[in-house]
Amino acid sequence: MSICFFEGGFRLTGECSLPVTDLVITRGIGVFDSIRSYSRRPFALGEHLKRLEDSALRSGIAVGDIVANIRQAVIDGVRRDDCPDDGDCIVKAYITGGDINDNGLFPNPRHFVIFDPGEPVNENDYKNGVALQPTMESRPYPLIKSINYLVGIMQSAGRDDVLECLYCPSGEAMETLRASFFICKNNVIITAPVGKVLGGVTRNIVIDLARTYGFKVNERPPKVAELEEADEAFLTGTWKEVLPVVRVGDTWIGDGKPGPVAARLLRLFRDSRDRWLEPEN
Questions:
Q1: What domains are there in the chain, each with its CATH number?
Q2: What integer is the mean pLDDT of 97-105?
Q3: Measured between alpha carbons, how far is 210 from 115 in angstroms, rounded to an integer?
Q4: Nearest alpha carbon to residue 87 among 41, 34, 33, 35
Q5: Residue 77: CB partners within 8 Å, gap ≥ 6?
Q6: What is the DSSP code (8-state) at residue 225?
Q7: pTM of the predicted protein model
Q8: Terminal-residue alpha carbon distance, the chain
Q9: Which residues are registered as beta bridge partners of 252?
Q10: Please, which pLDDT band fits residue 118 given cuts at 50, 70 and 90?
Q11: Quick check: helix, strand or coil at residue 196?
Q12: What is the mean pLDDT of residues 263-274?
């Protein structure tokens, strides 16, 4: 059962509603961020909320004290007895466009926070890897974490043999619908730079860990043509952590099995995860 912080209080998600005039409904104007909570302790909360605030401001949405309110709601929500999965949940914070469009500025936004049960990755996906569907489409406004996922969802709709799409505009493998994308080639980790892709919170942590432990990281967009030359590939994301990729479209990566770099980075990430958890009190 999901709960929601809405209009200053907590209630069941089914008891919350927005006016049909909110621009998040009529024009798809809104931003969000997903935060994972481990045993009632939000992960990298400050980094996620900074990205949420930046996304709102870049979209012309006034922020005011909304982000501070969301921060307290997240901390309070994961500690509630009715929080899903005993506080080991996925928290999604939203800021909508509100009812007023002032020449592309949105001065009266709404906000709410949904606390959902976790979205566990199948352990077989870590063991066997996942497949992605390439698309020549690009994600609009890569520095904004918008609610509008329609373009990405359409690329793999109805397919159960792929996890999600991989945006590959102009022959460059950028990011997936919900994660950052990396390849490993000749002992170098390669991933597109922030600005061309969203600044993933887990992405940034994993890159720092990789460099700390001796991996070379090159922040440039991998070419689609390089995928068949890659030794391995993987994703990073809030719930995925570090997830190996073994196929993109018809192209198999390396020997078609998860590689040692992704496995090592997953261990490093999990071993150091507590560094980014909110204090218990």
A1: 3-117 (3.30.470.10), 123-275 (3.20.10.10)
A2: 97
A3: 31
A4: 41
A5: 3, 5, 10, 83, 91, 113, 115
A6: G
A7: 0.96
A8: 25
A9: 247
A10: confident
A11: coil
A12: 97
Q: How confident is the model at residue 280 (pLDDT cuts 50, 70, 90)?
A: confident
Residues in CB range of 67: below 8 A, 6 or more apart: 49, 52, 53
User: E strands along the chain, which residues?
Assistant: 3-6, 9-12, 30-38, 41-42, 89-96, 111-117, 130-135, 164-167, 180-185, 188-191, 216-219, 232-237, 241-248, 251-252
CB 201 within 8 A of CB 238: yes
What sign results for the dihedral spanned by CA atoms 177, 179, 185, 191?
Answer: positive
Among 124, 153, 134, 122, residue whose Cα is nearest residue 253 = 134
183: DSSP letter:
E
Three-state SS at 163: coil
- DSSP H helical ranges for the chain: 23-26, 45-58, 66-78, 123-128, 150-155, 201-212, 260-272
Please give the angle made by the CA atoms of 32, 34 and 37, to the nearest 5 degrees: 145
pLDDT attached to residue 242 = 98
Query: Token digits for 130?
Result: 């996942």
* Token output for 81: 């007895």
Please state, in angstroms and as integers, the Cα–Cα distance from residue 197 to each residue in 8, 15, 45, 144, following that order.
34, 36, 20, 9
